[in-house]
Each structure stands twice: as structure tokens, then as C-alpha cells.
Amino acid sequence: GQQLNQSPQSMFIQEGEDVSMNCTSSSIFNTWLWYKQDPGEGPVLLIALYKAGELTSNGRLTAQFGITRKDSFLNISASIPSDVGIYFCAGQPYSGAGSYQLTFGKGTKLSVIP
Amino acid sequence: NAGVTQTPKFQVLKTGQSMTLQCAQDMNHEYMSWYRQDPGMGLRLIHYSVGAGITDQGEVPNGYNVSRSTTEDFPLRLLSAAPSQTSVYFCASRDRVAKNIQYFGAGTRLSVL
Question: pLDDT, tens digit, for every residue of A7-64?
């Protein structure tokens, strides 16, 4: 099946620092999604990307769809304590009509030190 | 707007017991799926459905059963619970015109003793 490598697995940063995480795939994706999961909750969508090279922002978050269609990154600027959680990337493999499966990375656990 | 609702939030079972995890969505989404989340493993797909009456297996289907008699509901059945099924279970739904955006429930935390 599809493989998504998400890195880093975990990060400890000081409040106010910028954060960067990324996902790479062994095959081409036509959609990249970034989710955040707060402790004890389900994942919530942060940003969706649909075109190679697309750069999209949501407040302090910025994500990009890699031009090779095999990678994506998420940046968080000026981190705050509520940024703590697990960040997941998810990709929709390129395929024909009727494709459905999303493949998820294993997550990046972010800890913010006040 | 309730979105995706999962019940129960917590459950403890003994080995060999059966139970059903409930999932309901009020967004009229065609696609629904079940995932399990284990430490260091991310989200793994158990079963999914592309519409009422249609289900298919995901990555880790063994020990689980599903059915989809209505658009709104997609229950997950554990036939004979095993300690390896201790996990957090998430239900998700998606509309086929929603450009791959999945909405997740809050999860069911299951312990099998």
C-alpha cells in the first residue's frame, strides 16, 4: 500500500519559535491534507492542498504541496502553548474516478515549552 | 450541527466479549470509515463504506465487522474482543464533492482486559 513518511516524530520547542514538519510519499498524490489532534479528541482539518506548488495559509499555519506531488510541508510561526498536539499529514493517491482512500502519516507530536 | 458522533466515549471489555461501536453523521455524507489509532502507528483504516449497502475492508479488518443500512449510521462490531484490539477508534465521514476532506468523530477509547 501507500507509504507516507512524516517527520519529525516529535518536537519540543520554546514558545515563540517557528515549527516545520513534512511528509514524503513514494508515489504521486493529488491531495494533501494537514490535521491537528488535541489530546482526547479526534483530528481536525487545518489545511487542504489540491495543486502541485500550491501554498496555503491559515492564520499562523502555512502548508505547501510539493512540485513533485510527492511531498508536503507544514510551518507554524510564533508557536503558542495551544499549538500542542499531534499533527498528521494525509494524502489522496492519484488515481481514476472512484478513488477514495486517504493515507495518513504517523504524526508529529508537538510540545511547546512556555 | 453535530457532525460525526461516536458512542460510547470509553469502554472496557473482557477478552471474548462482543460489542458495537456506534457512529452517526448528520451531513448526508456518502463515504464513512473506521480507523484505529495506536501509539506510533498513526491512523490505520479498518473498514470503509462508499454508500448505504456497500462496505469494504481497509488495512486492518480482522476481528471487525461493519454494515451500512442507512446513510447516517456506520456501526463497527467487535466479534470476540482481544487485548490486541485495545485502541482508540475513530469514525470519519466525507462527501464525494467535499474534495477529500474527512470529518472525524471524537473517538471511542477501548480497553480489552
Answer: 999 999 999 999 999 999 988 888 999 999 998 899 999 999 999 999 999 999 999 9
- Binary contact (B106, A102; C-beta < 8 A): no
Residue B100 to residue A42, Cβ atoms within 8 A: no
CA A106/CA A94 separation, integer angstroms: 20
CA–CA min distance A57, chain B (Å): 17
CA B78 to chain CA centroid, nearest Å: 11
User: Shortest Cα distance from B113 to chain A (angstroms)?
Assistant: 21
The predicted-structure confidence for B44-62, as pLDDT tens digits, reads as follows: 999 999 999 999 999 899 9
Q: What is the pLDDT of residues A81-101, one digit of tens each?
A: 999 999 999 988 766 544 567
Rounded CA gap, B23 and A2, in Å?
26
- Residue A112, beta-bridge partner list: A13
